[in-house]
């Protein structure tokens, strides 16, 4: 990474753009509601970047060379996410329209058992979320089905929602199709699959503990036998050709990942396999479908079953554009903070206070939770956190993958636990369960940041690189 020397802004001046950004986002939430954060995030980022430029010009002797260095650094870290995000939108579309996700859901629903309902719910939601890369889609489809079934069995809505959300956010966190996973890895400059593999150190133990808790809770609960939603089953079978042969697609995709094929190639091959399966397995859908339009824009199913419509309808490339817009706006914001030396000033202050590994990780976790509460948006929290702590980890000779993992542990999975965060607002409305009601039962979500702290304290698979620190300070 190019080392950019600080040219003057004091710490008091350097924090002003970040404070203004957070203040603007909080004001948007208060005045317009949490949903409005998606519409105004890019404007807030660009406005904060403009303020940073003005302050640097007045107080720090801003130079064009510094800005160009900052833009190069920020673009190198951020731009690789754009083609990945574009392909993710296409993978989600082709895997859905090929019948792969409906087939997986069809077989998953057949595994329902009253005693093991909670643990099966968590596992099914986890698998569906890994396949789709979206916790929101999983909760809006499988979650809606499971919440009704679980309450009919006698489970409290909080327990069922906790199992749904735990599984959905596990998949969202480690899926290479997840936009938050791509944003976290690219914001720090870590290769996507390196980031995912390193996250398993904290994610797998958290999931295992969550599954144990849900198993014990199911065994101790009173419940009755109930069948899965027959309407969803019937609509799935009537609309798609359900066949286990479609599982060849994720098997081959996983094989490519294990063979360390480049991420772009893996995703491109996944799109092609999904596209081929659309024609081979689902001719009744492709015969009346404009394929180019389906890949570019939305495909909406209108059936009497609302849960199926939410599941099967896709948004194509256009659905991922708002995330790409946010990533590019964040790139500009990061470029200005880097180029003006403000990030260097802020991270330098943190470095003076944070020397020990556990303290640095603990500060990152606390900041992630704080940013989640202030910005009400997981993407912004990841991006701002990456900009603040990137140099702290580098100067302390801690690996970038530790930062990207800690951000995911403290931001991605906790956003749904905050009532005014966009994730908390959405999932509470979709499931019909208050955020404060399901929060204690989202075992995986609140356990993830605690596990991150525990692993940091133990130092397991956390390495320092003195040679890197020497090179950076030379």
Report on this model:
The protein is mostly helical and 474 residues long. The radius of gyration is 23 Å and the shape is globular. The chain contains 26 helices and no strands.
| Tally of helical runs | 26
Count of DSSP strands: 0
Order of helices and strands: HHHHHHHHHHHHHHHHHHHHHHHHHH
* Poorly predicted sequence stretches spanning 5 or more consecutive residues: 1-6, 467-474
**Based on CA inertia axes, which overall geometry fits?**
globular
Mean pLDDT: 83
Alpha-beta content class = mainly alpha
* Helicity range: over 70%
Main sheet overview: none
Beta-strand proportion: under 5%
Radius of gyration equals 23 Å
**Amino-to-carboxy terminus distance:** 14 Å
What does this entry show, briefly?
The protein is mainly α.
Spell out the key features of this protein.
474 residues; 75% helix; 0% strand; disordered N terminus; disordered C terminus
Show the helix and strand layout:
Blueprint: H1 11-14, H2 16-32, H3 37-59, H4 64-78, H5 81-97, H6 100-109, H7 117-132, H8 135-153, H9 157-174, H10 179-188, H11 192-220, H12 230-239, H13 248-258, H14 263-281, H15 283-286, H16 291-296, H17 306-312, H18 321-339, H19 342-353, H20 357-375, H21 378-395, H22 400-412, H23 422-431, H24 435-438, H25 443-458, H26 466-473
Helix pairs in contact: 2-3, 3-18, 4-18, 5-10, 5-14, 5-18, 6-7, 7-8, 7-9, 7-11, 8-9, 8-17, 8-23, 9-11, 10-21, 10-22, 11-22, 11-25, 13-14, 18-21, 19-21, 20-21, 20-22, 20-25, 21-22, 22-25
């Amino acid at each position: 990474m190019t080392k950019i020397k600080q040219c003057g802004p004091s710490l008091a001046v350097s924090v002003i753009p970040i404070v203004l950004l957070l203040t603007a986002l909080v004001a948007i939430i208060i005045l317009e509601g949490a949903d409005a954060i998606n519409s105004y995030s890019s404007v807030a980022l660009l406005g904060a970047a403009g303020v940073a430029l003005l302050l640097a010009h007045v107080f720090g002797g801003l130079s064009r060379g510094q800005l160009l260095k900052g833009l190069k650094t920020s673009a190198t870290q951020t731009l690789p996410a754009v083609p990945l995000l574009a392909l993710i939108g296409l993978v989600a579309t082709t895997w859905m329209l090929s019948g792969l996700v409906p087939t997986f859901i069809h077989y998953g629903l057949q595994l329902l058992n009253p005693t093991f309902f909670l643990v099966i719910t968590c596992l099914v939601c986890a698998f569906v979320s890994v396949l789709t890369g979206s916790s929101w889609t999983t909760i809006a489809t499988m979650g809606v089905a499971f919440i009704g079934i679980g309450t009919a069995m006698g489970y409290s809505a909080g327990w069922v929602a906790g199992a749904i959300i735990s599984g959905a956010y596990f998949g969202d966190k480690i899926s290479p199709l997840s936009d938050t996973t791509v944003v976290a890895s690219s914001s720090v400059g870590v290769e996507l699959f390196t980031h995912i593999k390193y996250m398993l150190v904290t994610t797998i133990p958290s999931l295992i503990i969550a599954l144990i808790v849900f198993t014990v809770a199911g065994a101790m609960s009173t419940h009755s036998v109930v069948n899965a939603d027959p309407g969803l089953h019937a609509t799935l079978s009537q609309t798609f050709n359900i066949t286990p042969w479609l599982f060849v697609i994720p098997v081959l995709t996983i094989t490519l990942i294990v063979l360390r094929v480049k991420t772009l190639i893996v995703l491109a091959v996944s799109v092609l396999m999904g596209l081929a399966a659309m024609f081979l397995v689902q001719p009744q859908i492709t015969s009346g479908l404009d394929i180019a339009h389906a890949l570019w824009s939305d495909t909406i199913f209108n059936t009497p079953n609302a849960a199926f419509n939410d599941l099967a309808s896709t948004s194509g490339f256009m659905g991922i554009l708002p995330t790409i817009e946010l990533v590019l706006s964040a790139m500009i914001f990061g470029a200005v903070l880097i180029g003006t030396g403000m990030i260097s000033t802020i991270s330098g202050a943190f470095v003076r206070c944070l020397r020990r590994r556990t303290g640095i990780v603990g500060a990152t976790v606390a900041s992630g939770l704080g940013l989640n509460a202030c910005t009400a948006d997981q993407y912004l929290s990841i991006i701002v956190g990456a900009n603040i702590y990137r140099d702290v980890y580098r100067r302390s000779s801690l690996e970038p993958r530790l930062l990207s993992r800690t951000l995911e542990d403290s931001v991605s999975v906790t956003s749904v636990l905050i009532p005014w965060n966009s994730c908390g607002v959405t999932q509470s409305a979709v499931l019909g369960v208050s955020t404060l009601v399901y929060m204690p039962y989202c075992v995986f979500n609140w356990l993830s940041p605690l596990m991150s702290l525990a692993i940091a304290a133990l130092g397991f698979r956390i390495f320092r690189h003195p040679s890197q620190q020497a090179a950076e300070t030379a």
